[in-house]
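Data availability excerpt. The first of two example chains:
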Amino acid sequence: MARPPRNKSHLFIDGGGQGEPYTSPRTVISGLPPARTRAQHAAKLAQSLATAVLDAQAFKAGRQAGVAEGEEGFYFQFEIPATERGAVDGLENKPAGIELVAVPQAVEGEANITATVFVPERSLEFYSNKVIAYRDEETKTGRPKNENLIARLEDVRLAMVRSLFTDAPGLYPQPNVTAWWEVWIRDGKLTSFRTVAGRLNIPLKDYAIRFPERDVVLARGTEGDLARLLANSDAVAELRLAKDSPSTFLDMGAAEQVEWAEDLVDRLVAPDELAPAVCLLDSGANRQHPLISPALPAEHQYAYDDTWGVGDSSFWNGHGTSMSGVALYGDLHQALAQQGDVELPYWLETVKILPPNAGNDPLLYGAITERAVTKPEEGAPHRKRVFCLAVTSEIGLARGRPSSWSAAVDQLTYGGGALQRLFVIAAGNLRGDILAADYPDRNDLEEAESPAQSWNALVVGAYTDKINIIDPAFGHWSAVAPAGDLSPSSRTSGIWDRQWPIRPDVVFEGGNFAHDGVNPSSHVDDLQLLTTYYRPNIRMFDTFGDTSAAAALGANLCANIIAARPTLWPETVRGLAIHSAEWTPAMQAHFDGAGNQAMKMAMLRRYGWGAPDLARALRSAADDATLVVEDVLLPFKKENSTIKTRSMNLHALPWPRDELLELGAADVELRVTLSYFVEPNPGERGWTRRHRYSSHSLRFAVKRSLESLQQFRLRINRAAEAEEEGAVGAAAGGDGWYLGTTRDRGSVHSDVWRGSAAALAERDAIGVFPVSGWWKEKPGLQRWDRAARYALIVSIRAPGSNIDIYTAIENKLQVEIPAA
């Protein structure tokens, strides 16, 4: 069953023309057909068709009950002389339901071309009958019947996956090699195709490109996986290798690159004056690039030291300009290749924090960052912005302990109760040679770099879906990381001490490495993102990857959230990014293989909460409803001379009780994310109870099915007391939560509960409660009376149900929920 869309679609009526009956004209093949020995040619084709029909019946055994969708049918591949290419159109017959779907590229030097048609089972004898008529019957002029078509056919066979492949033959993936395929879908069959792919556990990208008569989606699998799709679906028209590769554009000459860039510039819709911004703290940027200048006015560029200038430099290989391209467009390949306008919903700002010809002293980066942040804020004090920092340092790492730099970021994000800020920070990359044999063990052993120890920033690691190598020069090379897994350069928090936050929080595409089986792996253009080159007078485009690209993509997503919801708190934007994240199938397989909570924590410290999705961050669906709450509590109070924990906030959940009870034992999913900022106290004093880093911590707990509200309150009070005594995760243990006690690290907590809909109907309250921090432990600092903001994000997902959960909750709230 297809999932309901996340964007409730309008109904459009365009034009007022009156329809008239119309008969499709018959296909006419011009010119004389090849001379044939009639009986011999008919016998050859009849035998080939009989074999194809027998093979089709055998192939039918692969059609699985409960999986297959659409009309039963098969694909036939015809061979036609290259000189008779016009005959391919004559293979199609609409009344018989026969559709010409693919004409693969001709192989140089071959005498014949091939054409593949879809033949419904009801028309399986269509071509055999035409051959018999060709053999036995004449037209009024005395010519063999159907000669124009049949005489132009050399051979026919049952078509398989390769028969539908229309790219250059050399790009066809090797057997048993997993690749991303472009699947071109027959008109009107996208929904059924997605259904079959889902039942076969074949991953698809969420988006589709719409063309007349075809939809194009990306599917990941082997040749065998695609064969199963063909056996169970009538939807596939043709196959190509997914080629969202930078090499497509990098192989162009400079003049052609300019043409593509100018075409995109003509389609750009500039940001609104009040739009938010992504502020890059990096090596500056070259705003002379035509794809950068529309979003980066000269007054948006700054430098930590005014003598450095604001432009990019060759010393840093144009890193800031590369970051700009990804932050603005994502993978630039998509913006260049799509048709229609490209809206820029936010501005760029750049602050040059790297000297033109050397590095900074890492010990000063905290101060540099603080000054860098204030410059654009002074220039545009009312603008909402996301700060993005991909500059990291390996100096002074200590298994997750805060550095002065990370603490400065935490202080900037917390803002002292006045100006909260959102930071997106890269987890950092492995240095030196990267060996395929060391993956992913080395990634787990090399810790995220400073300032990724920050509690409040959104820390981004890199994963990759890029596994297709197109360049024939690297035809014998292999991708290091499997699709959907950690990018080979990305660092993790696998060796951090248990009290420190999960890092990364999320992962974005960072490209892949390739290796030849002997030497260290290296970047290959096909496995990177496409972005803007800092010297556009030489060329327009460049490749980019690793956690720098991933961080830029993270800033891109957060800025899009702010553009859509300008009033959201930074804590909420970060929470939505994490709440929208899901583990890819490759990541989930590692979690599924985790035998205990310690192993599950190791996977969480490798992948965070997975790969975010903008649609999930902004929109609900009928079967996937999300509530977003922004609230404040006072964590502590003073009684006599003692600082004590004050109270919790109890949130009643407007669950559609009747609808959930109607679903009964059906499986549903509840996801909760709690996001807040802490005020840091980074002095290195052993991190004892009294010398805590965080000002306070918050936790969430969900009322259980057979628990009264009073029992729920008592359980939370006991959990808070247990945490005071050092029992981390006391409120999260047991009760079917996927992460449970492992989720309560840092200042964002996210977890999933799965169970029956009837059980969820009783889970109708969430408590948010404080546990201790230095605000409480150090009364002399006079912080105990400060308020703590938080965002609470709650989703119910009921996949496969026919009940509109979203509308039921909306009605229960009795207020309009604005559409994203």
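And the second chain:
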Amino acid sequence: MTAGGVATSGLPPASTPASAPAPARAWALGRLGARRPSWDRLAEAVSLLVAALAVGWAFGGLFVGHGAWAPLAGAVLVPAGLTAAAGRLTRRLDLLASVMLTGLAGYLVVVVFGWADGRAVGSLPNTVNGLRRGWSNLLTAGLPGDPTATLLVVPVLVLWLATAAAVALAALGGAMLAPLLPLGAAFAVAVALLGGAERRATAAGAVLALASLGFALARAHRRGGVGASPAGSFGLGLPVVLVAVLVGAAVAAALPSDDRADPRTLRPRPVTSVAELDPLAQVRGQLTASPPRRLGTVTLASSTGRLPVDRVTTAVLGDFDGASWRNHDAYLSAGTTLPRDADADGGLAADGPTVTVHAHVTIDRLDTPLLPVVGRPIRLSGVPAAFDPWTGTLVHTAAASSYQYQLTATIPTPGAGRLADAVPGSGPDLARYRTIPPGLPPALVQVAARATAGARTAYAELTALQRFLRDPAAFPYDLAGRPGHSYGSLSRLLTSDDPRERHSYAEQHAAAFALLARVKGFPSRIAVGYLLGPDTAGGRGVFTLSQARAHAWPEVYLAGIGWTPFEPTDTSRLSHEEPPDTASTAAGGMANAPTPTPPSPPSPPKLSAIPRLDQPHSGAGHQARQLAVAVLVALAALLAIVPLAVVGEKARRRRRRRRAGPPGQRVAAAWQEARDRLSEWGVPPVRSRSASEVVGDATVLGPQVIEPLGLLEPLLSRALYGRQDAAEADAARAWELGDLLRRRLREQGSWLRRLRAALDPRALLGARATRGGAASGAASSAARGPGGADRTPGGRLRAAAGSSGG
């Protein structure tokens, strides 16, 4: 039997492309042979680019923000394009290397070192100097750092050379996996420089592994010829790579990383020296200044609207030698993102709830390089600075007396219950904060025991110490008291019978608390800074920095909470001095000269006045932005849903056609399903075409497609015009041929062509009628009775068979 001039005999029910006639198979192999090499080369190129971009993504972990993405991506895409273009003109390695190095020099001059502060500054001397100092800068800077040219030059150099070498090796042939070796070496450099950023390295390594697998499979398939099966290779290789990536990530997470090799340890980081007088001894001098000078303003806001801070810190003193409290840490150069070095944080990182606070600080005049900060700073912009990661303090490195900067910090916010159950922090990282130097007077041990008697918990002991030192009857607040915070000064304050020796202020109270806390086994230190005062002209959240609110207070490290401030000083009268006559009487005439007492500054405003950041803004501009975002989200959802709906509806209708109705109707449905698939591949779905004409129209798709279609056409004819109803076997055979047609169509097209066919919605919208529609029933007119009524048993199927509807 023939249909449309195509032989229909000899096709087994479960036929495959291999069982097709020799001419058809030769035609199909020739077609596939013309398509597959270009597809394989495209797969190789895309996989290699993805692998190189994964290495660039790993290098991106060295920088803060997204500013490094463009130059790093350019260091992959530009050399890939240049090397591929040069490879079409020559195969000589020396010429390819010349093109690669010339392009690298141009990219560094124009892109990396080309701009600064919005001005074109690119020059060859700047580039050479940057190359010379690039490794040193990258090994000594705190990471992640700002994407400056001096830090970008090394990652760009490594990425450029690795990508160019990989593309050149891929173009020249040779060993199958040779193009991946330069990218693997570049990735190793990125991992070494990333330090503790294991998450970024693991994610980038997974992408690199999968892209390398895709490159290897595409390359093997192209070398294996058109008969190679990529599905089998993927089925074997993909699980192996996925398991390897997962096992590697698990091992990396489980193994200790404290002793991991870090190339940055090979070069010491530059240290900023701070020539600063004892900050604790300077508190009294600021409080007694007449008149007190305004230093600047601080504008604060938080991520939750709650602001758990009423002071700023300028210095943290954790080293006590029996005579003075100092900070012996080094200040290291820092960028926008302030580093949290593993050695500095160690066991000091708090794991409880925190609030993120944003501060805008304006300094009018400050006679110290120490910058006011809040909490634990994590970001800084607006002023060049050096950072002490142990104490979280900053010093500015600019030669300026007035400046502005923006600061982001985190502040622990433990609840009352957690504080009540807190215990002192422990571990080697806190040993320096528990150190008691030789010479401790034994009487101070007795004072610590007496002050904390009756306290049953660690936190209760600390609050008992706070109440003990705040007692105005025992320790009157008096700026005229004797200064000092050594063993001798604290012993006089805490054990002397002379009432005048007990007159004291924040310097002695903070030092006494910190020392007594160490006697009780708590890690402690002293913070120096300013209490925040109001600025009535500044608005909500704006506070004044003033010498009249200089202050010092102790901090204790509590496990799981972090450094917690305590207040053993009555802060309501920071500038208070006892009258001279009272002091003379109390001290036997040893009073200082009279000093005018400035009025006490007003207390800080309530923190509830800080505006909430999570409240919605008002105004037409904000509403317009909300509307634009809503429209964009709706469009994105529509673009994502429509293709899925088209594919899902086609699958649903195919299942309904396969199962609904008697056998004859299912045969007609199988034919209509075949016509829908043909229309997706370019065969016009014209209703006036007969079945044999449809087979003829499909010849443009080749013998592989005509074969199952030619076998399906006689089954349709018997179902429509036969005197007996179609059998169940005919329906099953019709759908088998329909499934075979779909497979043949998919085999001969590229993935893009298959995707376009799957998303084509025309089969769901109905077929178009033509002028020849009146003749659509010509082949079946003999089966109609008078008046055009269809009298044949299969007549009720003809409309469905000739329509492309559902």
